Amino acid sequence: MNDETMGQEDAAQDAEACAEALESLDRISLDDVAFDDSSVDVQDEPEIEAQPDDQDTGDVEPAEDEADHEDTESEADDQPGSDTSEETILLDNLPAEDSLTRELPGLGSAPAVDETIAMGDIPLPSVPSAREAEVRHRKMSPKRRNLMVAGVVAVALVAGGAGYAAWNGYRQEQAAVVAANARTMMSVQIGVHAAGLDCSTGSKIPVQVSGQDSDGSSVSETLYVDEHGRGIKLLPGDYTFSIAASPIAADGTIYTVPTTKAQVTVKNDGQDLRAQATFKLKVPSADTVTDDQIDAAAKYAEEGGASSAAAAKVLQQAATARRDAAVNAVSAQKAQASRDADARHKATDLYQLDIPVEWYGKVATWQNGSTLCIYLGDDANTPLVTLVAVREGESFTPDEGDTVLGAANLGNGYTVYASGPVYPYVVPQTINGRTQNPVSTYPMDTAIELVELTTGNRYTYSQIKNVLVGKDGKADTATKLETDYLAQILLPSIKAQD
């Protein structure tokens, strides 16, 4: 058997193995890819038509001619140096003397290295000519051609299937990454303003979170943030934030809980949501804090806002103590204010009034019937104003050196007149503690206090002396300063006696 025949048998075996592989594919059948024999026979017809008409087509001579042709080709292949030889000499068929290692010319008897193969010893495959390719094609049976085409199709399908599997695997990997991100907790920051709050010593701020995560699951939980708004971790999704209760500062401060809510979308880790969610917790007056507010703050502090239940209890006690102290202080202030009001309240048989708050503690009074005198400190000789009730139709004349500073109609047939020295005019004329026209003598500190009391501290002694009045007088300007002030702080409080 020659080498070409052996190659044909090997090819046939390979084709049959490929056919068996194709039959194992569920979606591919040999009938779908087999060529029609007629298409191959058409290529053989020109050679048949070239035969003599009188020759029987069933004659076996063409086969012999073909055999002779094959023998000729085989002999041509045996000729050395043939460029058209397509046969490859198998290594197993080499004679024993044609070793893979040989003595190179000019190098003597060098040790042979089995691993070294000279390129000239290995015959290279040749490319068949067009004529030879045509002959091979005609010699190839339709079944063999169909099997070879089916093999190519099978290889393409396998390669395509591998590519699809790779792409599908990539898509699955990406989907897994997206799914993993969707199930990863994201840290976000919100804005909070709570004066004096230090969560390292007080409790954290409880934030009520409700909404839906990216998986469509409903969320309703309380999370805690520090004074910087950090501490919230959520899955990606859409949420509503609100403040659940007040935190408790280390000194017991309780905050007013804002009623605002914020709609946010959590997308990635480290997201800053302060532009969408900022809450301001104001500090109310401590005496207005209720037990319910303290209890709610303590509850959330114990559930997660404080380091422990014991720490939450300590903060609750601090809040209660702070509130109670504020309530007691306010009560004390009210009691004192009531006492002060009683002390400031004066009454005669015809009218009653309240000493101005600005004067309280700095003046004293004496009373005679319906006349009431308000004087400076414990010096009865330095009156600020004297009040006298006069029946309607009767005239009133102030004491010497005094000026009528205002009047209040009681509505019961009497009018109360207020009179006294015009201190903004008299006092600035004091030189070395004495006046130029000595109505009385005033030490400098007294002079300053008199000016302040009669003008309500709207002007200083220096301003009145150097600008508004001056040494030369301007009594009208000075008088107006005093009368305007008394009209604001004293005369409105004068009422008829009940």
Strand order of the largest sheet: 12-13-14-16-15
Query: Portion of residues in helices?
Result: 25-40%
**Quick one: overall form?**
rod-shaped
Radius of gyration using CA atoms only? 60 Å
Q: Could you describe the largest sheet, including whether it forms a barrel?
A: 5 strands, antiparallel
* Structure summary, number of beta strands: 19
Distance between the amino and carboxyl termini: 150 Å
Q: What's the average pLDDT?
A: 76
**Structural classification:** alpha+beta
Our count of helices gives 12
Spans where pLDDT lies below 50 across 5 or more residues: 26-122, 431-435
Determine the strand fraction and express it as a percent band. Answer: 15-25%
